[in-house]
Protein backbone atom coordinates (compact mmCIF):
# COMPACT_ATOMS: atom_id res chain seq x y z
CA UNK A 1 0.00 0.00 0.00
CA UNK A 2 3.04 2.23 0.33
CA UNK A 3 6.36 2.26 -1.52
CA UNK A 4 9.32 4.58 -2.06
CA UNK A 5 11.60 4.59 -5.09
CA UNK A 6 14.59 6.63 -6.18
CA UNK A 7 15.49 7.30 -9.81
CA UNK A 8 18.22 9.37 -11.41
CA UNK A 9 17.89 11.63 -14.36
CA UNK A 10 19.80 10.88 -17.56
CA UNK A 11 21.60 12.87 -20.20
CA UNK A 12 20.96 11.86 -23.80
CA UNK A 13 24.06 11.48 -25.97
CA UNK A 14 21.83 10.58 -28.91
CA UNK A 15 18.73 12.72 -28.44
CA UNK A 16 15.06 11.87 -28.46
CA UNK A 17 13.49 14.71 -30.42
CA UNK A 18 10.18 13.91 -32.08
CA UNK A 19 7.12 11.76 -31.50
CA UNK A 20 5.19 9.59 -33.92
CA UNK A 21 2.42 9.11 -31.34
CA UNK A 22 1.86 11.82 -28.73
CA UNK A 23 -0.72 9.99 -26.66
CA UNK A 24 1.25 6.88 -25.73
CA UNK A 25 4.63 8.56 -26.45
CA UNK A 26 6.24 6.75 -29.34
CA UNK A 27 9.40 8.41 -30.67
CA UNK A 28 10.56 8.96 -34.24
CA UNK A 29 14.07 7.67 -33.43
CA UNK A 30 16.09 5.56 -31.00
CA UNK A 31 17.99 7.51 -28.36
CA UNK A 32 20.85 6.70 -25.99
CA UNK A 33 21.72 8.16 -22.60
CA UNK A 34 23.93 8.06 -19.54
CA UNK A 35 22.17 7.95 -16.17
CA UNK A 36 23.60 10.55 -13.75
CA UNK A 37 24.08 9.98 -10.03
CA UNK A 38 24.06 13.68 -9.20
CA UNK A 39 20.41 14.38 -10.02
CA UNK A 40 17.53 12.30 -8.74
CA UNK A 41 13.93 12.15 -7.58
CA UNK A 42 12.71 10.21 -4.56
CA UNK A 43 9.01 9.43 -4.58
CA UNK A 44 6.69 7.80 -2.07
CA UNK A 45 3.31 6.55 -3.21
CA UNK A 46 0.82 5.71 -0.44
CA UNK A 47 -2.62 4.38 -1.32
CA UNK A 48 -5.64 5.63 0.63
CA UNK A 49 -8.98 3.79 0.47
CA UNK A 50 -10.81 6.95 1.57
CA UNK A 51 -9.35 9.32 -1.07
CA UNK A 52 -11.57 10.43 -3.93
CA UNK A 53 -8.65 11.84 -5.93
CA UNK A 54 -4.85 11.76 -5.99
CA UNK A 55 -2.72 14.22 -4.04
CA UNK A 56 0.68 15.25 -5.33
CA UNK A 57 3.21 17.10 -3.17
CA UNK A 58 6.50 18.10 -4.82
CA UNK A 59 9.27 19.40 -2.55
CA UNK A 60 6.70 20.06 0.16
CA UNK A 61 4.30 22.04 -2.09
CA UNK A 62 0.95 20.76 -3.40
CA UNK A 63 1.01 20.61 -7.20
CA UNK A 64 -1.99 21.61 -9.33
CA UNK A 65 -2.68 22.20 -13.03
CA UNK A 66 -0.93 20.51 -15.91
CA UNK A 67 1.80 18.92 -13.79
CA UNK A 68 -0.80 17.36 -11.46
CA UNK A 69 -2.79 16.10 -14.42
CA UNK A 70 0.25 14.34 -15.91
CA UNK A 71 0.77 12.53 -12.60
CA UNK A 72 -2.86 11.43 -12.16
CA UNK A 73 -3.12 10.36 -15.82
CA UNK A 74 -0.04 8.22 -15.27
CA UNK A 75 -1.45 6.77 -12.03
CA UNK A 76 -4.59 5.88 -14.05
CA UNK A 77 -2.38 3.60 -16.18
CA UNK A 78 -1.08 1.86 -13.05
CA UNK A 79 -4.62 1.56 -11.64
CA UNK A 80 -5.72 -0.05 -14.87
CA UNK A 81 -2.81 -2.51 -14.77
CA UNK A 82 -3.57 -3.38 -11.14
CA UNK A 83 -7.32 -3.50 -11.65
CA UNK A 84 -7.68 -1.30 -8.57
CA UNK A 85 -9.63 1.92 -8.27
CA UNK A 86 -7.73 3.46 -5.42
CA UNK A 87 -6.22 6.94 -5.14
CA UNK A 88 -2.82 7.88 -3.87
CA UNK A 89 -0.83 10.36 -1.89
CA UNK A 90 2.32 11.05 -3.93
CA UNK A 91 5.26 12.81 -2.32
CA UNK A 92 8.34 13.63 -4.36
CA UNK A 93 11.65 15.22 -3.51
CA UNK A 94 13.38 16.51 -6.59
CA UNK A 95 17.12 16.98 -6.54
CA UNK A 96 17.10 18.32 -10.10
CA UNK A 97 16.82 21.97 -11.13
CA UNK A 98 13.30 21.79 -12.61
CA UNK A 99 12.55 22.80 -16.19
CA UNK A 100 15.87 24.41 -17.02
CA UNK A 101 17.00 21.83 -19.51
CA UNK A 102 17.51 19.09 -16.94
CA UNK A 103 15.09 16.29 -17.51
CA UNK A 104 13.45 16.27 -14.08
CA UNK A 105 10.53 14.51 -15.75
CA UNK A 106 12.91 11.61 -16.46
CA UNK A 107 13.80 10.89 -12.84
CA UNK A 108 10.30 11.95 -11.77
CA UNK A 109 8.32 9.49 -13.89
CA UNK A 110 10.84 6.67 -13.40
CA UNK A 111 10.52 7.01 -9.61
CA UNK A 112 6.72 7.37 -9.83
CA UNK A 113 6.36 4.29 -12.03
CA UNK A 114 8.52 2.19 -9.69
CA UNK A 115 6.90 3.38 -6.44
CA UNK A 116 3.39 3.39 -7.92
CA UNK A 117 3.50 -0.16 -9.28
CA UNK A 118 5.06 -1.47 -6.06
CA UNK A 119 2.43 0.25 -3.89
CA UNK A 120 -0.30 -1.29 -6.08
CA UNK A 121 1.26 -4.73 -5.71
CA UNK A 122 2.29 -5.15 -9.35
CA UNK A 123 5.59 -6.88 -10.17
CA UNK A 124 7.10 -5.78 -13.47
CA UNK A 125 10.36 -6.72 -15.17
CA UNK A 126 12.69 -3.81 -15.91
CA UNK A 127 11.59 -3.94 -19.53
CA UNK A 128 7.92 -3.77 -18.57
CA UNK A 129 8.64 -0.95 -16.14
CA UNK A 130 10.52 0.95 -18.85
CA UNK A 131 7.63 0.53 -21.28
CA UNK A 132 5.15 1.82 -18.69
CA UNK A 133 7.43 4.72 -17.66
CA UNK A 134 7.72 5.82 -21.31
CA UNK A 135 4.04 6.76 -21.24
CA UNK A 136 4.68 9.29 -18.45
CA UNK A 137 7.62 10.94 -20.16
CA UNK A 138 9.64 9.55 -23.04
CA UNK A 139 13.16 10.13 -21.73
CA UNK A 140 12.15 8.62 -18.36
CA UNK A 141 12.08 5.10 -19.84
CA UNK A 142 15.90 5.24 -20.04
CA UNK A 143 16.26 6.10 -16.33
CA UNK A 144 15.13 2.62 -15.26
CA UNK A 145 18.71 1.49 -15.97
CA UNK A 146 22.05 2.62 -14.61
CA UNK A 147 24.98 3.53 -16.87
CA UNK A 148 24.27 3.70 -20.59
CA UNK A 149 20.79 2.83 -21.89
CA UNK A 150 19.17 2.87 -25.31
CA UNK A 151 15.49 3.56 -25.92
CA UNK A 152 14.45 1.42 -28.87
CA UNK A 153 11.68 3.24 -30.70
CA UNK A 154 9.95 0.02 -31.80
CA UNK A 155 7.86 -0.60 -34.90
CA UNK A 156 4.43 -1.39 -33.49
CA UNK A 157 1.67 1.17 -33.16
CA UNK A 158 0.62 -0.01 -29.69
CA UNK A 159 3.99 0.71 -28.04
CA UNK A 160 4.57 -2.92 -27.08
CA UNK A 161 8.12 -2.85 -28.49
CA UNK A 162 9.07 0.69 -27.43
CA UNK A 163 11.22 0.61 -24.27
CA UNK A 164 14.80 1.07 -23.11
CA UNK A 165 17.46 -1.60 -22.80
CA UNK A 166 20.76 -1.47 -20.89
CA UNK A 167 23.87 -0.89 -23.03
CA UNK A 168 26.66 -0.80 -20.41
CA UNK A 169 26.49 -0.72 -16.58
CA UNK A 170 27.91 1.99 -14.32
CA UNK A 171 31.12 -0.02 -13.71
CA UNK A 172 31.93 -0.18 -17.43
CA UNK A 173 33.30 3.33 -17.75
CA UNK A 174 33.84 6.24 -15.38
CA UNK A 175 32.66 8.93 -17.78
CA UNK A 176 31.81 12.15 -15.94
CA UNK A 177 29.40 14.97 -16.69
CA UNK A 178 29.60 18.57 -15.52
CA UNK A 179 26.24 20.32 -15.55
CA UNK A 180 26.89 23.97 -16.31
CA UNK A 181 23.99 25.99 -14.98
CA UNK A 182 23.28 29.36 -16.56
CA UNK A 183 19.73 30.00 -15.61
CA UNK A 184 17.24 28.18 -13.42
CA UNK A 185 14.27 30.06 -14.86
CA UNK A 186 11.47 28.18 -16.63
CA UNK A 187 12.00 27.91 -20.36
CA UNK A 188 9.59 29.49 -22.82
CA UNK A 189 9.07 26.47 -25.06
CA UNK A 190 8.60 23.17 -23.21
CA UNK A 191 10.36 20.17 -24.72
CA UNK A 192 6.96 18.65 -25.46
CA UNK A 193 5.84 21.73 -27.39
CA UNK A 194 9.26 22.24 -29.00
CA UNK A 195 9.36 18.68 -30.26
CA UNK A 196 5.85 18.92 -31.69
CA UNK A 197 6.55 22.17 -33.47
CA UNK A 198 9.74 20.74 -34.94
CA UNK A 199 8.09 17.58 -36.23
CA UNK A 200 5.22 19.54 -37.76
CA UNK A 201 7.12 22.39 -39.36
CA UNK A 202 10.90 22.03 -39.57
CA UNK A 203 12.21 21.07 -43.02
CA UNK A 204 15.38 19.88 -41.22
CA UNK A 205 13.48 17.21 -39.32
CA UNK A 206 13.94 14.44 -41.91
CA UNK A 207 17.67 15.12 -42.03
CA UNK A 208 17.81 14.79 -38.26
CA UNK A 209 15.95 11.46 -38.20
CA UNK A 210 18.02 10.05 -41.06
CA UNK A 211 21.25 10.89 -39.24
CA UNK A 212 20.42 8.76 -36.19
CA UNK A 213 21.22 5.14 -37.22
CA UNK A 214 24.87 5.89 -38.05
CA UNK A 215 25.38 7.95 -34.87
CA UNK A 216 23.88 5.17 -32.78
CA UNK A 217 25.96 2.42 -34.28
CA UNK A 218 29.18 4.39 -33.90
CA UNK A 219 28.54 5.69 -30.40
CA UNK A 220 27.83 2.16 -29.20
CA UNK A 221 31.20 1.05 -30.59
CA UNK A 222 32.77 4.04 -28.84
CA UNK A 223 31.13 3.20 -25.51
CA UNK A 224 32.22 -0.41 -25.79
CA UNK A 225 35.83 0.68 -26.43
CA UNK A 226 35.64 3.52 -23.85
CA UNK A 227 36.76 5.82 -26.64
CA UNK A 228 36.25 9.36 -25.33
CA UNK A 229 36.99 11.11 -28.62
CA UNK A 230 34.54 8.96 -30.53
CA UNK A 231 31.74 9.12 -27.96
CA UNK A 232 32.22 12.83 -27.27
CA UNK A 233 32.40 13.97 -30.87
CA UNK A 234 29.33 11.95 -31.90
CA UNK A 235 27.33 13.23 -28.90
CA UNK A 236 28.32 16.82 -29.69
CA UNK A 237 27.41 16.56 -33.37
CA UNK A 238 24.12 14.84 -32.56
CA UNK A 239 23.21 17.61 -30.11
CA UNK A 240 23.99 20.30 -32.70
CA UNK A 241 21.82 18.56 -35.27
CA UNK A 242 18.91 18.35 -32.83
CA UNK A 243 19.19 22.04 -32.02
CA UNK A 244 19.48 22.91 -35.72
CA UNK A 245 15.98 21.51 -36.28
CA UNK A 246 14.50 24.14 -33.92
CA UNK A 247 15.91 26.98 -36.04
CA UNK A 248 14.08 25.56 -39.05
CA UNK A 249 10.72 25.33 -37.23
CA UNK A 250 7.82 27.70 -37.75
CA UNK A 251 7.87 29.86 -35.70
CA UNK A 252 11.60 29.30 -35.22
CA UNK A 253 13.05 29.00 -31.73
CA UNK A 254 16.24 28.12 -29.91
CA UNK A 255 16.97 27.04 -26.36
CA UNK A 256 20.39 28.67 -26.39
CA UNK A 257 21.36 31.83 -24.53
CA UNK A 258 24.47 33.87 -25.26
CA UNK A 259 26.33 32.14 -22.44
CA UNK A 260 25.37 28.76 -23.93
CA UNK A 261 27.56 29.64 -26.92
CA UNK A 262 30.38 30.85 -24.69
CA UNK A 263 30.38 27.51 -22.84
CA UNK A 264 30.42 25.64 -26.16
CA UNK A 265 33.43 27.67 -27.32
CA UNK A 266 35.21 27.16 -24.00
CA UNK A 267 34.79 23.39 -24.31
CA UNK A 268 36.31 23.53 -27.78
CA UNK A 269 39.25 25.55 -26.41
CA UNK A 270 39.78 22.95 -23.69
CA UNK A 271 40.13 20.35 -26.44
CA UNK A 272 42.61 22.52 -28.32
CA UNK A 273 44.66 22.57 -25.12
CA UNK A 274 44.63 18.77 -25.01
CA UNK A 275 41.81 18.21 -22.50
CA UNK A 276 39.22 15.81 -23.93
CA UNK A 277 35.90 17.52 -23.16
CA UNK A 278 32.70 17.56 -25.21
CA UNK A 279 29.36 19.31 -24.75
CA UNK A 280 25.77 18.30 -25.12
CA UNK A 281 22.64 20.40 -24.55
CA UNK A 282 19.03 19.41 -23.91
CA UNK A 283 15.89 21.48 -24.33
CA UNK A 284 17.22 24.40 -22.31
CA UNK A 285 20.14 26.85 -22.09
CA UNK A 286 22.33 24.80 -19.74
CA UNK A 287 25.26 22.81 -21.07
CA UNK A 288 26.47 19.40 -19.96
CA UNK A 289 30.17 18.71 -20.45
CA UNK A 290 31.52 15.18 -20.81
CA UNK A 291 35.00 14.64 -19.36
CA UNK A 292 37.27 12.03 -17.78
CA UNK A 293 38.09 11.83 -14.03
CA UNK A 294 41.73 12.89 -14.47
CA UNK A 295 40.61 16.20 -15.98
CA UNK A 296 37.96 17.01 -13.39
CA UNK A 297 39.80 19.86 -11.62
CA UNK A 298 40.76 21.62 -14.86
CA UNK A 299 37.32 21.26 -16.41
CA UNK A 300 35.50 22.52 -13.31
CA UNK A 301 37.84 25.51 -12.86
CA UNK A 302 37.58 26.63 -16.49
CA UNK A 303 33.78 26.28 -16.56
CA UNK A 304 33.30 28.18 -13.29
CA UNK A 305 35.32 31.12 -14.61
CA UNK A 306 32.92 31.75 -17.52
CA UNK A 307 30.92 34.96 -16.93
CA UNK A 308 27.20 34.12 -16.75
CA UNK A 309 27.73 30.64 -15.32
CA UNK A 310 25.92 30.47 -11.98
CA UNK A 311 26.88 26.95 -10.92
CA UNK A 312 28.73 23.84 -12.05
CA UNK A 313 27.61 20.49 -10.69
CA UNK A 314 29.72 17.42 -11.24
CA UNK A 315 28.22 14.00 -11.70
CA UNK A 316 29.31 10.44 -12.19
CA UNK A 317 27.39 7.75 -13.92
CA UNK A 318 24.40 6.68 -11.81
CA UNK A 319 22.49 3.55 -10.90
CA UNK A 320 19.08 2.59 -12.21
CA UNK A 321 15.88 2.78 -10.25
CA UNK A 322 16.03 1.49 -6.66
CA UNK A 323 13.43 0.83 -3.96
CA UNK A 324 13.95 2.31 -0.54
C1 LIG B 1 16.29 13.57 -24.53
N1 LIG B 1 14.86 15.59 -24.40
O1 LIG B 1 16.56 12.61 -25.26
C2 LIG B 1 15.73 14.79 -25.19
C3 LIG B 1 16.80 15.72 -25.65
C4 LIG B 1 15.16 16.99 -24.48
C5 LIG B 1 16.24 17.09 -25.48
O2 LIG B 1 13.61 13.88 -23.78
O3 LIG B 1 7.06 14.74 -24.00
O4 LIG B 1 10.50 15.34 -21.14
O5 LIG B 1 7.60 13.85 -21.74
O6 LIG B 1 8.18 12.53 -23.77
O7 LIG B 1 11.17 13.21 -22.32
C6 LIG B 1 12.82 15.92 -23.07
O8 LIG B 1 11.56 15.46 -23.39
O9 LIG B 1 9.37 14.66 -23.30
C7 LIG B 1 13.78 15.07 -23.78
P1 LIG B 1 7.99 13.90 -23.19
P2 LIG B 1 10.66 14.59 -22.42
O10 LIG B 1 16.53 13.54 -23.29
Automatic annotation (TrEMBL):
It holds the Pfam family MDD_C. Residues 7-164 form the Diphosphomevalonate decarboxylase-like N-terminal domain. Keywords: ATP-binding, Lipid biosynthesis, Lipid metabolism, Lyase, Nucleotide-binding. Signal peptide: none annotated. Residues 180-305 form the Mvd1 C-terminal domain. Its EC number is 4.1.1.33. This is diphosphomevalonate decarboxylase. It comes from Virgibacillus halodenitrificans.
